Structure formats: structure tokens, C-alpha cells
Amino acid sequence: GDSLCGWKMATEEAAHAEKIVGELRGDIIKFYELSKGSIEAIGLLFSEMAKQPLPPQVICQILGLDEETVKAAFEAGNPPVATQEQLIDAVQKSVDLEDTVDMYKPIFSRHIKRFQNAEEVMRELGPQMTEFHKKVGREREAAGSARAIACQQVIQGCMTCRLAPIGRAVSPTAPAGPPYGRTRPAHAPFRAARWGEVRVGHPDHRLVSCFPVLYAWWFVRPT
């Protein structure tokens, strides 16, 4: 009956997801190596898949991370990272039966290129940053280092926003899609956002450079 039909559909989806991830595995691993498992970077990736920004708690849920553990890590000044296996598993669980490799590959390519562009910019700025530090006195070296790091983050964020705007606004007529969460409830928030059932009031969803700030704020905000 219904249970047999549901089991068959779940089995087909699992096999299809495994096939898609198998074809994307090289891209997933390349993205992981460049991002070093940053949950901010993974948040940007999944937000583009969903076609709108996903809040930090949803990203933690997708990755199977405990929100309290993540919050404690942020408060301790050690932003947590996801493992390669967690990323692969999250992508696999997010694949739908009607999805194709062509729906995912361009997204991974853009995010990989974003990191490569940022690395190239930082390499070009390296000599200038070294010269900057030489001009800063010993008494101000610590403050200068902090400013240099902040400058790097701002520059990288700006390059990210310029070279790879993330996401597009979801059409008001976007299909509601099938009842996601039936067999994979942990990914229901991601699936709802992906199909336009959840709206985030942002004009074009280009939250690239502010995502790290959003994550840090979310986990250390006063409760």
C-alpha cells in the first residue's frame, strides 16, 4: 500500500542522489579543500542551491551540527568547521529525484572560482601587506596585524561580492514542490526554502560578504 510506495520512492531517491553525488564528487572535494570546511562558505553554497539565504541554524541542521556546540565554539573564538563527509552527506540528502548534475555543477564551479579569485587577489596583495607591516612600529604591531587581517577580510568579501554574486530572488509563482521532509525531515527547512515556500525579505539575496558576520552574530548574540 502507501508504505510500500513510500519505501520504493525513498529507495529511488537515495539511488539517484548517490549517482548525482558520485558525478559531483570531484567538485565537492575541491570546494571543501578551498573552503576548509567553513560553515559560512557552506552556508553560501546551500543558499544558492535554495535560491535564497538560509539562516545559520538551518545550515547547522543540514550538516548535522549541534547548534549549542557551534555557538560555544564561536564564543571561544574557534569557528567550527564541517568534515568532508558531512558536506558530502548534506549534498546527497538534499538531492531530489528530478534533479540533474547540471543543476549543481555550475553552482559548485562559481563557488570554487570565487575562492580561487580571492586567493589570487591575496597573493597579489601579499608584498603590499608585508611592506605595510614593516612600516608599523613594534608598539603598534599587534594593532596593525589586527587591522591587516580585517582589511584582508573586507577585500576578500568585496571581491567575493563583485566576482560571484550569490543567488537570485525566488519567483512568487515558484512551484511549491512535493511534500519534502516526508523521508528526510532534517532537510525540510532547506527544501522549503529551495521551492519558494519560505521567503526572506531581501531584494536580490546577495549576502556574500556579510555571511561571516551573520554567523558570528547569530551564535554569540545575547539570548
Q: How would you portray this structure in words?
A:
The structure is a single chain. With 223 residues, the protein is mainly α. It has a domain at 2-100 and 167-220. Helices cover 66% and strands 0% of the residues. It is built from 9 helices and no strands. Residues 158-210 have low confidence and may be disordered.
Question: How would the blueprint of this fold be written?
Answer:
Elements lengths: L1 H34 L3 H12 L5 H8 L3 H9 L8 H10 L7 H35 L5 H23 L24 H7 L16 H10 L3
What attributes does this structure have?
223 residues, mainly alpha, 0% strand
* Major sheet attributes: none
Beta-strand proportion:
under 5%
Distance between the termini: 47 Å
Helix residue percentage: 55-70%
What sequence of helices (H) and strands (E) makes up the elements?
A: HHHHHHHHH
Average pLDDT metric:
72
Contiguous uncertain segments of 5+ residues: 158-210
Number of helices: 9
Which outline best applies? elongated
Number of strands: 0
Give me the Rg, rounded.
Answer: 20 Å
Structural class: mainly alpha
Task: Summarize the entry for a quick read.
The chain has nine helices and no strands.
